[in-house]
């Protein structure tokens, strides 16, 4: 890298940063243009070099790789900018999908733009948009939320901030946190229509549709494997958020559970677990719904 940089620095014309999409599961989703660019650039900044090496090998490429990820971006970023400023092209790829979308890449793009370097997107697969277009929910306006913060407090704050949006909401989540996150979303947004898109573009691709409470029940009853996108309907005038109307949502869940044969006390306990409300609030909601 050092020799090439010195040679190119003499020419002074900056190289181009290509933000290059890679498949989210199905290798058939690699674009011709992505293969060409990854073969033409002298260096690829990859989130996981081993994974990208496998991808390159599949397409008969042997381009040099350098690791660039969340934990080394502060150290590697300036060196990559220097490489570009010296006249060398660079491609940036993440493990899957679009770099910069819940993945490294956006900082590098911002730094490159600040230095007057040309940034070129090479579009392709993306989990959020793939889930959205097949969700059956409104696609005219949507908000990409990505991964919610990990701590309960921050998660609640973030959900409170977006609970009134009319846009369809798109979340990413890892399978081992999916149940907990679904519970938090249901508790904050109310029992809205939603879709769980699993293993997009892969052999076991699956779309589960229903209200959030039904999807949460499915999460709790099944061993969750694979990758998931959660797509949730936006707020509507007619459907107030749960912070405004938890009673109706909770009462509806209790009604459904008791209709399925569960004892009322157990149904209240289960509903509290699913919605994050206290048992007392659920009980109160049931009383209100029954007009007592
Ligand atoms: N940059 C990627 C993109 O453009 O979609 C997203 C990377 S982010 C680190 C990984 C998350 O994206 C996963 O936890 C999951 O929520 C979602 N995801 C990625 N691939 C997926 C797939 N094949 N099916 C469903 N969700 C997927």
Instruction: List the secondary-structure elements in sequence, H or E.
Output: HEHEHEHEHEHEHEHEEHEHHH
Radius of gyration: 23 Å
Major pleated sheet: 5 strands, parallel
User: How many discrete structural domains?
Assistant: 3
Listed once per kind, the bound small molecules are: S-adenosylmethionine
- Count, helices: 12
Q: Work out the number of β strands.
A: 10
Mean pLDDT: 91
Terminal CA distance: 75 Å
Low-confidence stretches: 237-247
CATH superfamily of the largest domain: Tetrapyrrole methylase, N-terminal domain
Throw out a few tags for this protein.
single chain, alpha/beta, five-stranded parallel β-sheet, elongated, binds S-adenosylmethionine, 292 residues, Methyltransferase, Cobalt-precorrin-4 Transmethylase, Domain 2, Cobalt-precorrin-4 Transmethylase, domain 1, five-stranded mixed β-sheet
Structural description of this entry:
The protein is an alpha/beta fold. The chain has three domains: 13-125, Tetrapyrrole methylase, N-terminal domain (Cobalt-precorrin-4 Transmethylase, domain 1), CATH 3.40.1010.10; 128-237, 2-Layer Sandwich (Methyltransferase, Cobalt-precorrin-4 Transmethylase, Domain 2), CATH 3.30.950.10; 246-289. It has helices spanning 2-11, 32-40, 49-58, 73-85, 106-114, 127-133, 152-162, 178-189, 212-221, 246-259, 264-275, 279-289; strands at 16-20, 43-46, 64-67, 90-93, 118-122, 142-147, 168-173, 193-198, 206-211, 228-232. The strands form two sheets. A five-stranded parallel beta sheet has the order 3-2-4-1-5, with helices on both faces. The protein has a five-stranded mixed beta sheet with strand order 6-7-10-8-9, sandwiched between helices. Helix 4 crosses helix 5 (106-114) and helix 11 crosses helix 12. The longest helix is centred in the last third of the chain and has 14 residues, at 246-259. It is elongated and about 85 Å long.
């Amino acid at each position: 890298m050092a020799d090439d940089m010195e040679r190119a620095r003499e020419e002074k014309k900056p190289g181009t940063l290509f933000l290059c999409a890679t498949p989210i599961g199905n290798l058939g989703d690699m674009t011709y243009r992505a293969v060409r660019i990854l073969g033409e650039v002298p260096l690829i900044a990859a989130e996981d070099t081993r994974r990208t090496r496998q991808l390159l090998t599949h397409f008969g490429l042997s381009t040099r790789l350098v690791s660039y990820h969340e934990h080394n971006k502060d150290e590697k970023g300036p060196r990559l900018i220097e490489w570009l400023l010296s006249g060398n092209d660079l491609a940036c790829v993440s493990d899957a999908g679009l770099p910069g979308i819940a993945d490294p890449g956006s900082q590098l793009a911002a730094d490159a733009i600040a230095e007057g370097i040309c940034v070129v997107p090479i579009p392709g697969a993306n989990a959020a948009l793939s889930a959205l277009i097949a969700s059956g929910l409104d696609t005219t306006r949507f908000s990409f939320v990505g991964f919610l913060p990990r701590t309960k407090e921050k998660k609640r704050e973030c959900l409170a901030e977006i609970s009134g949006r009319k846009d369809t909401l798109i979340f990413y989540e890892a399978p081992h946190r999916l149940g907990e996150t679904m519970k938090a979303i249901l508790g904050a947004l109310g029992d809205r229509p939603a879709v769980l898109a699993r293993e997009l573009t892969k052999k076991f691709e699956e779309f589960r549709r229903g209200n959030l409470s039904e999807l949460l029940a499915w999460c709790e009853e099944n061993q969750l494997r694979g990758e998931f996108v959660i797509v949730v309907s936006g707020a509507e005038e007619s459907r107030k958020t749960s912070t405004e109307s938890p009673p109706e949502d909770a009462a509806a869940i209790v009604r459904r559970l008791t209709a399925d044969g569960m004892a009322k006390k157990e149904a209240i306990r289960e509903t509290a677990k699913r919605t994050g409300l206290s048992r007392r609030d659920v009980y109160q909601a049931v009383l209100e719904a029954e007009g007592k």
